[in-house]
Amino acid sequence: MTENYQNQPLVSVIIPTYNRPEYLKVALTSAVQQTYQNIEIIVSDNCSSENPQSIIEDFKDSRIRFFRNESNLGMFVNTMNAFKQAQGKYVASLLDDDMWEKDFLAKLVPALEANSDLALAFCDHYVIKADGTIDIAATQKCSHFYKRVNLKEGIYQPFYKLSLIDRAVSSATAAVIRREIIDWDSIPAEVGGSWDIYLNYLCCRSGNGAYYYPAKLTRYREHEQTETMLSGRRNFQAKIRKAKADLFCYEQFIKDDRLKELHPYFQKQWGYISTNLGIGLMRGENL
Q1: What pLDDT, in 10s, does the model give residues 167-180?
Q2: pLDDT of residue 241
Q3: How many Å apart are CA 199 and CA 222, to the nearest integer?
Q4: Which residues contact residue 25 at a Cβ distance below 8 angstroms, ignoring those fewer than 6 apart?
Q5: Cα–Cα distances in Å, from 23 out to 29, 86, 94, 109, 155?
Q6: What's the confidence (pLDDT) of residue 97?
């Protein structure tokens, strides 16, 4: 072990997984190949029909810690359980169908080390197709929509608007978080699939700042089974799940007096999402 390696703070890489063995291999490969080496990789399997333990063992990497649920606990519980296993100074989410560039951690961790007032560091990301090729149009659209295209490198403090309105911070896909900022046991189950938005809220609420590195250092995969694709199409159960989770988050934001200036936006979003939920329920889908 080199001196540089020993001096690096530990980063916990969080990989919740369920029935995506081929994608999981790719995600794991991108984690173990990080130029930043002092990491632990926590793989939490939500009782997949095909146990991915053999995939883990094939890597022969002692930094990987594997946990398998005896039954399906749901996406939220599986993800939070993985975060709670983390021992690192920092945590970074790597979804089992996504991947990182080799220097993702090497580019973001130093900013956190240099400034103890930072809650997180984040970057831009590519959008890739199911086969792993970069979707240039979708990538450009994503960067524009989430206001990262002209975002300058540097520290943003406070970053409520940047994170909760612009949604520039993608904590599930392209961020490294200071672990001690979050009380992981206090995150309510109602946030569901919007756990990343709620993490952003908790990081903002800490009073600490966010550092942005203006480069695409991760790859978000869009395919038929991603929640964003499901909820954006005619899958009404997915729409209902997403709407309920978002409603809960916005209700918490509206209750927070520190966000008073942003309440009109949150109230508008709450109304819009309530309408979507009503439509989903009128379709007669099972909840």
Answers
A1: 999 999 999 999 99
A2: 85
A3: 22
A4: 55
A5: 10, 22, 11, 25, 33
A6: 96
Q: Does domain 3-223 have CATH number 3.30.2130.10?
A: no
SS (H, E, C) the chain: CCHHHHHCCCEEEEEEECCCHHHHHHHHHHHHCCCCCCEEEEEEECCCCCCCHHHHHHHCCCCEEEEECCCCCCHHHHHHHHHHCCCCCEEEECCCCCEECCCHHHHHHHHHHHCCCEEEEEEEEEEECCCCCECHHHHHHHHHHCCCCCCCCEEECCCHHHHHHCCCCCCCCCEEEEHHHCCHHHCCHHHHHHHHHHHHHHHHHCCCEEEEEEEEEEEEECCCCCHHHHHCCCCHHHHHHHHHHHHHHHHHHHHCHHHHHHHHHHHHHHHHHHHHHHHHHHCCCCC
pLDDT digit string, tens, across residues 93-146? 999 999 999 999 999 999 999 999 999 999 999 999 999 999 999 999 999 999
Q: How far apart are CA 59 and CA 25, in angstroms?
A: 9
- Global confidence as pTM: 0.92
